[in-house]
């Protein structure tokens, strides 16, 4: 009986010691080290506007649709009911569609047409997949909004960067390629009454190099670039 009580006391003391070490001391040490060495990243890599208000994170993309801003790449994230909700950080996901899937091909074609329209590019090749006939709306249905007219300027570059028409694996990619950013310069400059040289230089100033000079591609953080654009326009 005494041996059992002694063993029980040892077990209780050991449990308390391990709880203090792993549940209190270790988390405090790691949190302190993270705050001291990687303060910005430990707090979510948050970005602030000119007034000091947090407007987002450099790690999570946002949906920009105005001509006055640079647009990010498409997002395939959905809400809790499975309905499209771009850049939904609570439900990070890809489309999971294979490269030969007609749904994916149609989505890419439609995205390409939207980019051509927005950026003043020439018309593309004939579609590989065409959408089926739209269902006839009910009499009480809300009328479909008229799409915005295409850009009135014209660019001679016919190529569209792949990140302009395809979603990332997470649906939250905050960056775009340098080529896609430069493709948008003329539209943004016209919408803000700025010169293309001003906006183009802003893009060049916000190019992020490959990680360690080797990994990935050169890129531009969309939110960071748009915040700088707002500051430039003031």
Q: What's the topology here?
A:
Layout: H1 2-37, H2 39-42, E1 46-48, E2 54-57, H3 102-119, E3 175-177, H4 178-183, H5 185-192, H6 196-205, E4 207-208, E5 219-221, H7 222-233
Antiparallel strand pairs: 1-2, 3-5, 4-5
Summarize the structure.
This protein is mostly helical and 234 residues long. It contains 7 helices and 5 strands, in the order ααββαβαααββα.
What tags apply to this protein structure?
single chain, 3-stranded antiparallel β-sheet, two-stranded antiparallel sheet, 7 helices, elongated, 40% helix, 234 residues, mainly alpha
Q: Please, could you describe this protein's structure?
A:
Helix content is 40%, strand content 6%. By secondary structure, it is mainly alpha-helical. The radius of gyration is 25 Å and the shape is elongated. It has seven helices and five strands. It has a three-stranded antiparallel beta sheet with strand order 3-5-4. The model has no long low-confidence stretch (mean pLDDT 85).
Task: For the record, give the distance between the C-alpha atoms at the N and C termini, rounded to a whole number.
Answer: 81 Å
Coarse shape: elongated
Poorly predicted runs: none
Count up the helices. Answer: 7
